[in-house]
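Data availability (excerpt). All sequences and predicted C-alpha cell strings are deposited with the supplementary files. A representative entry, Nucleoside triphosphate pyrophosphohydrolase, is shown inline so that the format can be inspected without opening the archive.
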Amino acid sequence: MNAISPAPDSGTAPGRVVLLTTSHRVAPGLLSWPAWQALHAADRVLCADGVHPQLPYLREAGIPVEEAAPTAEEIVDACAGGRTVVVVATGEGEPALTDGLARLAGTGRVRMPELELLPASYDLPGARLLDLVQVMDRIRAECPWSSRQTHKGLAKYGIEEAYELVEAIEEGDRDELREELGDVLLQVVFHARIAEEDPDAPFSVDDVAGGIVAKLIHRHPHVFGDETAETPEDVKEHWLRTKEIEKRRESVTDGVPLGQPALALTAKLASRVRTADLSVPLPTGEGIGYELLALAVRAEAAGVDPEAALRAAARVYRDAIRFAEGGRGEG
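C-alpha cell line:
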C-alpha cells in the first residue's frame, strides 16, 4: 500500500485522529451513531485492510475510504491544519500506529493531534458463541477425524464430559468448571453441526437454540407472561404440568431415561411419584438391588441426591485406599 500524502494545509493546528474499532461478530454496517458522525465529518478515512468487512458498507454510505497503512509520522502530517483523520482499525487493531504515535509524543518535539478511541460496534453477551460455531464449521470441513464423526460415535464423549462437569462442580474447582462447561458446550455445537448434514431431517445450532428459547419462555409464564410463582415449588409444579401437556404423557414415568445411572434413575422415579402425590409401595424382593432401591428412595425423600452422596463416600473410600497403600499414587 502506498504512503498517504500529507495534508495540503500547512496550518499549525494539530488536528485529531480517531481510531475506529469494530467487532466482526456484529453484522457489517451496524455501527453506532457516534461512529457514523465521525466518519461523515472526517477529512480522510483510512483503512489498512483492503478486505475489511465494513468497507463496502462505508462506501455505499458515501464514505470515501482510502486503503492505506500510514505511519505515525504520516498521520501527524495528515492531521495538520486541524483536520480529522479516521482510521478504521483492522481485526488485530493498529499496534504499530498507536505505538508510533506514543513514540512521537514521547520525544516532546512534535505537536501531536488529539487521539480518540471510538468503539463503533460492540460484542453483545454470548457473542463468542459465534466464534465457536465458525471454528466448528472449519474443523468439521478440514479435520480428518472430526469430519468423519457421527452422533452415535460421539455419544460416549457427551457422557464423559457431563461426568467431568459434575466432578468439577462437586470439587468446587472454578477453573476446572469453566473448562468443563466449554467441553460440554463443544458437544452441543459438534452434534448440531453434524445434524446440518442429515439428508432427511437437517437442523442447525440456530434451530437448537431457537427451540430451547421457545421452550424456556413457554415454561416460565411467571417471567414472560401473566402468571405468578412465589416459591420454587410453584415453579416446579407449573413446569411439570406444562411438560405433561406438551408431551401428552400417560404416566409419570414417561420421559425418564432408563439408561441413566441406577441410583439417579431410582431417585428420579421416586421424585415423580412424590410430585404426583401417588402412593406406590416399594417392590419387595431378595438381593442387594432391592436394598439399594429402598436406600435411594429414602435419600430422595430426604432431599439427598443418592448419586452425589455415594460419589462423596466413594472419594473418602479412595482416600482410605491411598492411605492404606502408604500414600502411593497421590496426586
